[in-house]
Specification:
The structure holds three protein chains of three kinds.
Chain A lengths: L19 E11 L5 E5 L6 E4 L4 E10 L2 E2 L4 E7 L6 E5 L1 E2 L4 E7 L5 H4 L5 E8 L7 E10 L35 H24 L7 H7 L1 H22 L3 H31 L4
Parallel strand pairs in A: 3-11
Antiparallel strand pairs in A: 1-2, 1-4, 4-5, 4-9, 6-7, 6-10, 8-9, 10-11
Helix pairs in contact in A: 3-4, 4-5
Chain B lengths: L1 H16 L7 E5 L10 H9 L3 E5 L9 E2 L2 E2 L3 E4 L13 H9 L3 E5 L8 H10 L1 E2 L7 E3 L15 E4 L21 E4 L5 E2 L5 E6 L5 E3 L21 E7 L5 E5 L7 H4 L2 E2 L7 E2 L2 H12 L3 E13 L9 E3 L3 E12 L2 E4 L9 E6 L1 E7 L1 E2 L9 E8 L5 E9 L7 E10 L16 H23 L4 H7 L1
Chain C lengths: L1 H9 L4 H21 L3 H5 L8 H21 L21 H15 L6 H27 L3 H13 L1 H4 L9 H22 L2 H17 L3 H17 L5 H19 L7 H4 L4 H22 L2 H29 L7 H7 L3 H5 L1 H4 L9 H8 L2 H15 L2 H19 L4 H25 L1 H10 L20 H28 L8 E4 L5 E4 L1 H12 L5 E3 L5 H8 L12 H12 L2 H10 L2 E7 L10 H15 L24 H5 L1 H7 L12 E2 L4 E2 L10 E6 L5 E6 L9 H8 L19
Parallel strand pairs in C: 3-4
Antiparallel strand pairs in C: 1-2, 4-8, 5-6, 7-8
Helix pairs in contact in C: 2-6, 2-7, 4-5, 4-26, 5-6, 6-7, 6-9, 6-22, 7-22, 9-10, 9-12, 10-12, 11-14, 11-21, 12-14, 14-15, 20-21, 20-22, 21-22, 22-24, 25-26, 27-28, 27-29
The chains are: A alpha+beta, B alpha+beta, C mainly alpha.
């Protein structure tokens, strides 16, 4: 491991008052297997890789103007670019102005640890008095993630604010088949009625006894009438009546059908026994 | 004379009614009542706004926050006191009870006086941490006042032109060329809680250190906080909308800092805006600003005049509206929400089914409320739903209004009739065919004369 | 003929006096049936019992208050919060409508009687009708008129039926058993006469039965089974065809009118036998017709073809429709009838109900007493004759016995047929030994020459007609019957007359002490909580809370949504940190638990706890594990040795919270589990005790609101207890504040 010297602070400090700067700035990453890479701050193009078990060490010598001196504040700032979150790490400073700081992934706050972009590291040096402080970009650090080790999860805390809109997705309405098909089938069904009638007629069905039966007594009229009336009540129930409107009618018609029916059917039975049916 | 007095009382009462929403009894806790002179402008402003100010010290015997279970003050201001703890009348528990009873507290700290343990414990319960050993001083070697603190850098000069988050109410923000001066500031850090909002955050180069111990350099193991994580003034609003503010620099409220001129390095001298900031801060803390009130909530079937029914049917079209007004210093005014962040209506059962933005309705200039409304179709799921407006935004009191409505299923006679459904036509005609066939069969069965071949057979 | 015998003492019985006597006896039986069911009313008060009746009662009140159509479309927003329940479409309305009709008739007659009293007394009233129905059914089986009366008497007081029909037990079974027996009577009548009218009446009452009780499936399966057995015995007849097809066609239509049943009769496997037999009968009828039309040789070939084809097509169709999802396969409840362990593994919610457990054999004797051994005798007697209707009794008795053995609750369906068969056996016995006595005695005295054929065998002193054997048998029979009556009365009084809402215990001096904790707690809820405060409790108490406290509940005894019940189970069996968000999400205001530790009341929630765990585990096997509630040695413990999962579960904490304060230090004991409890009681943070009843049976906890200043409940509670906030080293990385 070698420390490459020399670093000139960024420009802009060209005012009359002296300002803080540093020299010998270097960053070094030590892996577990004692493999290390070191960089000087000047080569900021390269991104420093910090692995799971690695240790990152930053060292420098702070200077007031050109004289090495201990400042009050010497921070290494790590910044997550997207959110702008920053974490400061104070350097341990000696009287001579030499300062170091070491950090591992464990020292990073969760938001920086889970950052996918490289972190921006900068140095802040300042102290009391009139000497100007200095902020300088130093290098970028990328956090390497070991896929075999479970990563800590970061859940954004609740903040009061607008939430995304939600629109309920409704279930589809039930669909009917095309009307024409329904219509064809409906007609086909209705067509069975005349067919049945024709069939009956072909078998010799007739209403010849109707006049005779009706003239015999009122029971036949009542009976047949009550059957038709019952169907009528059913139709009214279908088309709008309520149950409790229907029930009285049905019971009356049912009673009529029962009383007249026993008479009328008795007559039918007599006819049958007489061989007229 | 008497009438004059009563008139004065009446006038006072009318002033009183114009003050904070929650009341005008303000308690100021300070070391020595005489100290109030240095804050005369602040308290003068408060008194002008109608607050009835009582000054007291923590050592006082008859200091009492509660009497018979009722608050005796509506607001408290804590100025730095030299006592180690605030004593039995102001324990953290009592302070917390005060907040739970909707009392507002403003805590002003100073780096020159260590915060009392009671304050530290109280603030810790809210998720606000102060530096170790109750002392800490925020310095910033980049943004200090070159006039008063050119050597020590302990008077911060900030311009607070943007709210912490872009969608927040910018009630505390200043113009770009306006500055605040914060002398001898104690920083604090905030927990992750959603009830906390920083008002002033330290610049990213600022840090807090213990001036007694770390004179030479910052001790890396003892760094409390630095940069934007370090808050200088913060707001806390409890769930009952009681407010607590912490201000790191009590001195900035003093008269002398109200009109001092400050300058940053390389800048020209400008007057501070401390007076305005103090007014906003106290006004916000004591519920003169950012108080929302729900005036009316109405929901109804779209074509119905019956308001707020308890039961709807699935897929009903419902109109929902809520009227909000906002208290601003002395009057209720229509609340105009940020057009990009309107109140939202949630229709939820266990989880939201709908979350809809409410649109402001047209209103006239004389209105004191603003109505937000939306039309929606209830979900096709029966259950007990909440029509909930959960409008919680930093710096506004919370609006969380739930209307519980039952959404019932379709009743048996609300379905489309079967003749409307084309798919049912074959079935309906089937019924018709059966019925007519049955009637005809009856007739034939009863009245038929034996057919000829049959007759032959029987013969 | 026993009646005739009794009458004989008074003089020659005429037809009308017999009828009168029969009516009087039936009235007495009905009176006895009603009277023996009134123990609970006399001992406690006119109160609705147990769990389900409370819902029926509440529904009836709703019906009476809002009318039939509102009831039909009732959306109940006070149960199953926040899902609600489409109550009108998911209940059997027969019971409520019956009570409602009775109520309105009484109102019309200007008899102002409270709906509660109608509900309380409905079951006894219908038990009188059941006795009458049993009389009619038995009369169809035998010519002996005494059998019917005996059956009615048995039916009236058999504990197996009383268990579900005491006053206050306002449950579906209260009217369903009457309908069951009466439907069977009508079926037998229709079958005997081959009458469409009776078949239609049978269908009508079947429809009523469907409207009243889920057990209608029993009829739906027994009638086809009977028909099938008859056909297999070669007893196909026009009568069977007419009665069955009439019943099936009309009965199915009637049953489909009930919203809860809807299209089930054509969609589920449970109803398929009835449909299958319907089709089979058409086929048999058709074959019957063909046989009369064509020659024997052709007929055989025809028969085989038709049978094979039909069977194959029918089976294939059934399988295809089932696999396509048009016909629901057999439900879990059905499987549990064949495999008693099935429910425990697959549907814990069914297994957790005590009345779904297999029957212990003493229960048969307990519920039926002498009828148990009269049943085989009656069956044998019927088997000797074996007319069509006897086949029915035999089929029914065999199936009923099996089902009663599988599930305690089905003892109820077995009881009617046991009464019928036992009555036939008993009356045969009594007839044999009593009837002929006067004439017989004289003839035997007069000598054997004139003796009719029957007297031949009774010549010896030990023969059937000898005085000794008569006295012995009749005496023994009388003793048995008296014992039966006293047993029934004893069982009714001791086992079946407790409302279970109110508990009775005996004081040392023998006086009765009423433990009324349930009503105390429900009354507290009613008076001290908001109208819409949601109460979370285990589902057993849902109906009672709804009925007595009138507060919304999360789950209740209508266990239609297993997930929702599992959610409650999870909340009860998890740590507070897990339970609290669940309770918040469901807007729970209060939690109600039953704790019997102080009183030694064993039906408490800790004893039911494992069912909660099991049901929750069924939905969240990762989060709730039954194993964690048992110690390493597999014991279920609540004392010091309890597992951490157990000790941290909400149910455990709620049960034993503050319990230690009742005892001297270190002496706390649980009287149900009979163990010493740890000296340190559990600490609750997210809920707080709201109410505990006198005997600690019910404990009510209030769910705390979120902390006003945003702390979690654990640190808030610690702060309230005065504990200093410790700067605990947080594990894991630091978190920056994000705004």
């Amino acid at each position: 491991m070698r420390f490459l010297p020399s670093f000139a602070l960024l420009a802009g400090a060209a005012s009359a008052a002296s300002s803080w700067s540093f020299s010998d700035g270097a960053v070094e990453v030590t892996s577990k297997g004692s493999v290390s890479t070191s960089y000087i701050f000047a080569d900021v193009q390269e991104t420093v890789q910090l692995g799971q078990a690695d240790r990152l060490k930053v060292s420098l010598t702070a200077k007031d103007g050109s004289k090495a001196k201990r400042p009050h504040q010497a921070f290494l700032m790590l910044k997550e670019k997207q959110t702008g979150l920053e974490a400061p790490y104070a350097l341990t400073l000696k009287e001579s102005g030499k300062g170091t700081v070491e950090l591992t992934q464990k020292d990073l706050p969760i938001q920086l640890l889970t950052s996918t972009d490289p972190l921006e590291a900068s140095l802040v040096i300042g102290s009391f008095g009139s000497t100007k402080g200095a902020v300088s970009h130093a290098f970028n650090v990328a956090i390497l993630v070991d896929p075999n080790v479970p990563q800590p999860q970061y859940e954004a805390p609740l903040r009061y604010g607008k939430k995304p809109e939600i629109h309920h997705i409704f279930r589809d309405d039930p669909k009917s088949p095309p009307k024409i098909i329904s219509l064809v089938f409906a007609l086909a069904v209705v067509a069975t009625v005349p067919l049945v009638l024709l069939g009956w007629a072909a078998m010799g069905a007739n209403l010849d006894h109707a006049a005779k039966a009706v003239s015999g007594s009122a029971s036949h009229i009542l009976f047949f009438g009550s059957i038709v009336a019952m169907e009528g009540v059913y139709f009214l129930y279908y088309s709008g009546w309520k149950l409790f409107t229907v029930l009285p009618f049905m019971s009356i018609i049912g009673l009529v059908a029962f009383l007249s029916g026993s008479k009328a059917l008795g007559e039918v039975q007599r006819r049958r026994l007489a061989g007229e049916r | 004379m008497r009438s004059l007095l009563s008139l004065a009382v009446l006038a006072a009462a009318s002033v009183v009614s114009a003050v904070s929403v929650t009341g005008n009894r303000l308690l100021v806790v300070l070391d020595d009542v005489a100290e109030k002179e240095s804050y005369s402008k602040l308290f003068g402003s408060l008194a002008d706004r109608g607050f009835d100010i009582t000054y007291d010290t923590p050592r006082s015997e008859d200091l009492q926050l509660f009497h018979l279970g009722e608050r005796t003050y509506d607001h408290i201001v804590f100025l730095p006191t030299k006592v180690k703890a605030l004593g039995p009348k102001l324990t953290p528990q009592i302070l917390l009870d005060f907040v739970n009873a909707a009392g507002n507290i403003m805590v002003a700290l100073s780096a020159t006086t260590p915060a009392s343990t009671s304050t530290v414990a109280f603030l810790a319960e809210l998720g606000i941490s102060l530096p170790q050993e109750r002392t800490g001083l925020v310095v910033d070697h980049f943004n200090y006042d070159t006039v008063s603190a050119s050597e020590k850098h302990d008077t911060l000069v900030l311009h607070n032109s943007k709210p912490v988050r872009y969608d927040m109410w910018d009630v505390f923000s200043l113009r770009d060329d306006e500055f605040l001066a914060l002398p001898h500031t104690v920083g604090h850090t905030l927990g992750a809680g959603e009830l906390l909002t920083p008002i002033l955050r330290a610049p990213s180069t600022a840090y807090s250190y213990n001036p007694k111990e770390q004179t030479e350099a910052v001790d890396p193991d003892d760094l409390f906080a630095a940069g934007q994580q370090l808050a200088l003034a913060s707001a806390f609003q409890a769930r009952n909308s009681a407010r607590v503010t912490v201000l790191g620099s009590a001195e900035m409220l003093q008269d002398k800092w109200f009109d001092t001129k400050v300058a940053v390095e390389g800048g020209s001298k400008v007057s501070t805006k401390n007076a305005e900031f103090a007014k906003t801060l106290t006004g916000w803390t004591f519920q003169e600003l950012g108080v929302l009130r729900v005036e009316e909530i109405e929901h109804r079937l779209k074509d119905s005049n019956e308001t707020n029914p308890e039961i709807y049917r699935i897929k009903n079209e419902v109109h929902y509206q809520i009227s909000l007004s906002e208290y601003r210093w002395d009057a209720w005014v229509p609340f105009n929400a940020n057009p990009n962040d309107p109140p939202q209506l949630e229709v939820s059962m266990l989880s939201p089914f709908h979350r809809l933005n409410l649109a402001p309705e047209e209103h006239s200039a004389t209105d004191r409320t603003r109505t937000y409304s939306t039309d929606l179709i209830l979900p096709d799921q029966h259950g007990i739903f909440n029509l909930r407006v959960n409008y919680k935004r930093p710096f506004y009191t919370y609006v969380d209004e739930k209307c519980t409505v039952s959404v019932r299923h379709m009743a048996h006679d609300e379905w489309p009739r079967s003749f409307v459904i084309s798919g049912a036509w074959p079935w309906i005609s089937g019924i018709g065919a059966t019925v007519s066939g049955f009637v005809m069969f009856c007739a034939i069965w009863v009245y038929s004369k034996p057919a000829a071949p049959l007759v032959k057979k029987t013969q | 003929m026993a009646v005739a015998q009794q009458n004989a003492l008074l003089g020659p019985p005429s037809q009308s006096s017999r009828t009168l006597l029969r009516v009087v006896i039936l009235l007495f039986i009905a009176g006895a049936a009603i009277a023996s069911r009134l123990f609970s009313v006399i001992r406690f008060e006119s109160i609705i019992h147990e769990f389900d009746p409370w819902f029926n009662f509440r529904a009836t009140k709703y019906l009476v208050a809002n009318g039939f159509y509102k009831f039909w479309d009732w959306f109940d927003d006070r149960t199953w919060h926040p899902l609600g329940r489409v109550t009108g479409g998911t209940l059997y309305p027969g019971l409520m409508v019956t009570s409602g009709v009775i109520y309105h008739i009484l109102q019309a007659l200007t008899i102002p009687i409270d709906i509660r009293n109608i509900c309380v007394l409905l079951a006894p009233a219908f038990s009188g009708l059941t006795a009458f129905a049993a009389y009619l059914l038995t009369n169809e089986m035998t010519t002996s008129p005494s059998a019917g009366l005996l059956a009615a008497a048995f039916m009236g007081i058999a504990p197996g039926y009383i268990s579900r029909s005491v006053a206050g037990s306002y449950d579906n079974e209260a009217i369903a058993i009457f309908l069951l027996v009466f439907t069977f009577y009508l079926w037998i009548k229709a079958l005997k006469l081959g009458s469409m009218l009776w078949g239609a009446l049978c269908a009508l009452f079947y429809g009523y039965m469907v409207a009243s009780w889920g057990g209608y499936a029993f009829i739906t399966c027994i009638l086809p089974l009977h028909a099938f057995v008859l056909i297999c015995m070669g007893r196909y007849s026009r009568r069977l065809y007419v009665s069955y097809t009439t019943w099936y066609a009309l009965g199915t239509l009637a049953s489909m009118q009930i919203p809860f049943v809807g299209f089930l009769p054509v969609k589920t496997s449970e109803h398929m036998p009835a449909l299958g037999i319907f089709g089979f009968l058409q086929l048999v009828g058709f074959i019957d017709y063909v046989r009369s039309a064509i020659s024997g040789r052709q007929f055989q070939a025809f028969l085989i073809t038709v049978l094979v084809a039909t069977f194959g097509i029918g089976l294939a169709g059934l399988v295809a429709l089932t696999s396509l999802g048009y016909i629901a396969p057999w439900g879990g409840r059905f499987y549990s009838l064949w495999d008693t362990g099935y429910a425990k593994v697959h549907i814990p919610i069914i297994a957790s109900v005590s009345e779904h457990q297999p029957t212990a054999w003493p229960a048969f004797f307990f519920d039926l007493n002498i009828l148990v051994w009269l049943l085989p005798a009656g069956i044998w007697l019927l088997y000797k004759e074996l007319r069509d209707e006897h086949v029915f009794v035999i089929t029914y008795a065999l199936c009923g016995s099996y089902f009663a053995g599988v599930m305690v609750r089905l003892m109820l369906t077995l009881t009617p047929i046991v009464c019928v068969a036992a009555a036939i056996a008993a009356s045969k016995l009594l007839d044999t030994y009593l009837v002929k006595s006067p004439s017989q005695t004289s003839t035997s005295e007069a000598g054997e020459k004139k003796a009719p054929k029957s007297a031949d065998k009774t010549a010896s002193p030990l023969g059937v007609s000898s005085m000794v054997s008569k006295l012995t048998i009749v005496g023994a029979m009388i003793v048995y019957l008296l014992m039966f009556v006293s047993h029934c009365t004893w069982v009714t009084s001791n086992a079946y007359s407790s409302p279970s809402v109110v508990l009775a215990s005996r004081m040392p001096d023998g006086s009765q002490h009423i433990i009324d904790d349930y009503r105390e707690a429900y009354q507290w809820l009613r008076q001290n909580t908001k109208e819409d405060a949601k109460i979370m409790s285990w589902w057993d108490y849902g109906y009672q809370i709804g009925g007595m406290a009138d507060r919304p509940t999360l789950v209740d005894n209508n266990t239609w949504n297993n997930t929702h019940i599992a959610t409650v189970g999870k909340a009860m069996s998890s740590r507070e940190e897990v339970s609290y968000p669940i309770m918040r999400q469901h807007e729970v205001d209060y939690v109600l638990i039953v704790f019997g530790g102080l009183l030694g009341y064993s039906g408490d929630d800790i004893n039911k706890f494992l069912w909660m765990v099991r049901i929750a585990e069924g939905i969240w096997p990762e989060e709730v594990k039954e194993r964690d509630f048992f110690t390493a040695r597999g014991e279920y413990r609540v004392d010091d040795g309890a597992t951490d999962t157990m000790k941290n579960s909400l149910m455990y904490k709620m049960s034993y919270h503050n319990y230690q304060s009742m005892f001297p230090p270190g002496k706390a004991a649980d009287r149900v589990r009979g163990v010493q409890l740890p000296s340190e009681g559990p600490v609750l943070n997210t809920i707080e005790e709201a109410y505990t009843t006198e005997n600690w049976i019910i404990r009510i906890y209030k769910v705390k609101d979120l902390d006003n200043v945003g702390r979690d409940h654990f640190s808030a509670a610690a702060f309230d207890r005065g504990q200093k906030k410790k700067a605990t080293k947080k594990r894991g990385p630091r978190v920056l504040r994000v705004d």
